[in-house]
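User: Hi! I'm working on a homework problem where we have to compare a predicted structure to a textbook description. Could you give me the structure for the chain below?
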Amino acid sequence: MNKFRRVGWISVLLIMFLAPLRVYAGLIASGTRVIYTEGTREISLMLANTNSWPVIVQSWVDDGSGNPAYTGAPFIVLPSVFRLQPEGIQGLRIVYNQTPLPRDRESVFWINLYEIPPVSKNMPEQSRLQLAMNTQLKIFYRPQGLSPAPESAAARLKFRAVQEGGRWYVECDNPTPWHISFTDIIVRHGKTQRHVEREMDMMTAPFSQRRYALSGNIPVTSASEIQFYYVDDRGAILNDHTRL
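Assistant: Happy to help. Predicted structure tokens:
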């Protein structure tokens, strides 16, 4: 292993221990999300193959649908197809294609990393498809000059309890230009607490409201407390609390 390759692999391992990473199949990315600030020429993302076998990776950006034929993405990922050896590393270049995007809020898209492992020639096509895995990472486009700062967005969130169809929901009102990605929301009333039901993507978009279903009934009053866990720009999980 040459010096550059060795240093690159060590860097990826250090990132694994120093920052929260999302691991899908055998691919590890150097972050759980990508922030693209207006005016940046391009940004990079490092990948590592932790498998003991090589993989073919196809990369693209879409709206979260996982569709490589999607044509509305404002980003291009290079290389779009590559082979990654066992314990190999690969740098990806992410380039903005100048597609106009809203200037009063950040926009979100998804980077897809479709991983195809080697298979036997005699393996049925259906089995080959079952072995393929797709990693999705959020990429945020941020116009210059948005306010308030993203670090203060969580403190501006407002929550209320809503009952509909015999069920209780927590409604989050996000008055900021930033996307807020939750990992958990808890309602506490006295010694009783209820979590919201987990969803694949618990994100509240800018200047919008979203409801999250509670996992059970709980008395909800103005004395009830909301504790919420959310993901920051580094991929770390932070928490805050407020009253309903």
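For your comparison, note the following. The chain has two domains: 3-142, 150-243. The CA atoms of residues 19 and 203 lie 21 Å apart. Good luck with the assignment!
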